[in-house]
Write a structure and sequence with these properties.
Length: 491
């Protein structure tokens, strides 16, 4: 009888424990659900080849971008935001992994015969967010591989040149109960087809005579556009810039509609909105180069959960910083050494004590025929570019080579393209050092300047250390020790 009573009591204790565990689990699940509901939604809006040159909030009085300008008025405009590679696929891999492309195998384009691909062991932002309770969706340009690394739960189909259609199709994302991460990528203002059969016909930049359904196109006269200093002011350049402006305004129209749908969903006040471009304007001297027009890009961030955001910010930030920053906003834990980038959440809140004075960049390919590895360090106002393949002629992206803007220079035998000599553009020095405060166009190479030798040596050390810390295969440049390449054997 004593045994039965003891057993009964034991069972009672076990039952109570099980009940407590069950209740605790239910409470925990409710807590998780409640926590997830409190997490912010995040929209990462990425345009294709859009420079700072064509946005009202960055000082262009001609271009019509009222919706992006409104975002800037409510958020923060970054003046020193940088991609790490001025090439579409390579840049996008960095945005979604928080690692430099040379460490993930993301050396260049993924599509067609180029066939570069990120290592399948790499963790990506969308997968991490999905694992932590976020609903992930993408629409528009993808340009990433393999899919199992950059997986999104929902792939929404739409014409990536029609941002109005894209915005309308994203309404389903706003209806989800769980917090969402929307990766919205336009095909604009990337170059499209030439407008005619002649070499000097301007590129369309995706514009069509019949337009796009639902889009009220904004057109521009070649006479009114602003020609950036790195481009020669010619008839051909102005005609292409007018097409480019029109494509940018189409982005703005779709962005405005997306924000309208977000507001109607009631989730505007709990949604962080980030606007960036993958690389600079698709003109020679910008895209595929690591000069300022290719890598210093628009970045506008509105975080409604912050009470006070500076209207402008001069901190040096990089696309390699985006993944850890977004994970911080999403309250998702990670190891600091998990990424090459560093969260800049403290920059927006003013909580970051140490000033951000450095960024790095790494470009190896664009198209597979464009081998030209470059590494960059910017430290305060100084910038050092290492052209590892400087003995080669600088390779052209196929669409930039055939552009009427470049062909006019090439066919006329012009000495200059913008402020840079054509010869200097085609044949880069092995090392280029610039003082961006005094020389924003990066024309005066200070490598041989006696008064800059201390800075030059310091910058070289920083670049070498960066390559070592990020497992860059091209670190062999410094020692010329090719045994560092490995055995080539699968051991």
């Amino acid at each position: 009888m004593k045994f039965i009573t003891t057993l009964y009591k034991s069972k009672g204790v076990i039952f109570c424990l099980l009940l407590l565990i069950f209740t605790s689990c239910q409470s925990s699940k409710k807590g998780v659900t409640k926590q997830i509901k409190k997490r912010p939604n995040i929209i990462l809006f990425v345009s294709d080849d859009h420079g700072k040159d064509a946005l009202g909030c960055y000082g262009n009085p001609v271009i019509q971008t009222p919706n992006l300008d409104h975002l800037a008025s409510e958020g923060t405009v970054f003046n020193n935001a940088y991609c790490t590679s001025a090439s579409c696929a390579a840049s996008r891999s960095v945005i979604l992994t928080g690692k430099f492309g040379h460490a993930t195998g993301s050396y260049g384009h993924t599509h067609d015969y180029h066939h570069f691909s990120t290592y399948d062991t790499v963790s990506s932002l969308p997968k991490i967010m999905e694992e932590n309770g976020y609903y992930t969706a993408r629409i528009g340009k993808y340009h990433l591989a393999p899919e199992k690394v950059f997986h999104f739960q929902n792939v929404i189909k739409a014409n990536q040149r029609n941002t109005v259609e894209m915005a309308n199709k994203c309404q389903e994302v706003f209806e989800k109960e769980e917090p969402f991460f929307l990766y919205f990528c336009t095909g604009d203002p990337h170059r499209g087809q030439p407008t005619g059969p002649n070499w000097n016909d301007p590129n369309s930049f995706g514009n069509r005579k019949k337009g796009y359904e639902g889009v009220e196109e904004v057109t521009y006269s070649p006479d009114e556009v602003l020609v950036p200093s790195f481009i020669s002011d010619t008839k051909e350049a102005r005609e292409e810039l007018a097409q480019y402006y029109q494509s940018v305004s189409r982005i703005d129209t779709g962005f405005g509609l997306l924000m309208k749908h977000l507001k109607a969903s009631g989730k505007m006040e709990n949604t962080i909105v980030i606007y960036i471009s993958d690389n600079g304007i698709a003109f020679p001297g910008a895209k595929t180069t690591l000069y300022e027009p290719g890598m210093n890009l628009p970045c506008i961030i509105k975080n409604p959960l912050l009470k006070n955001q500076d209207k402008t910010n001069n901190a040096l930030i990089s696309w390699v910083d985006l993944t850890p920053t977004i994970l911080d906003w999403a309250n998702i834990n990670y190891q600091e050494n998990q990424f090459h980038g560093k969260s800049f959440t403290g920059v927006l809140t003013g909580a970051e004590e140490k000033e951000r004075t450095e960024i790095y960049a790494s470009h190896t390919f664009h198209e597979i025929t464009m081998y030209y590895p470059m590494r960059v360090v910017r430290h305060k106002n100084y910038k050092l570019i290492l052209n590892i393949a400087s003995g080669l002629e600088y390779p052209f992206a196929s669409d930039l080579w055939v552009s009427s803007t470049w062909q006019e220079r090439y066919r006329s035998g012009a000495q200059y393209y913008g402020k840079r000599k054509v010869e200097d553009y085609l044949h880069h020095a092995e090392l280029e050092l610039y003082d961006l405060d005094k020389d924003p166009d990066e024309i005066n190479n200070l490598v041989n300047s006696k008064e800059h030798q201390e800075i030059f040596e310091m910058m070289k050390k920083k670049l070498k250390k960066f390559q070592e810390n990020t497992q860059d295969p091209w670190k062999i440049y410094w020692e010329k020790d090719y045994s560092l390449q490995g055995t080539g054997l699968d051991l």
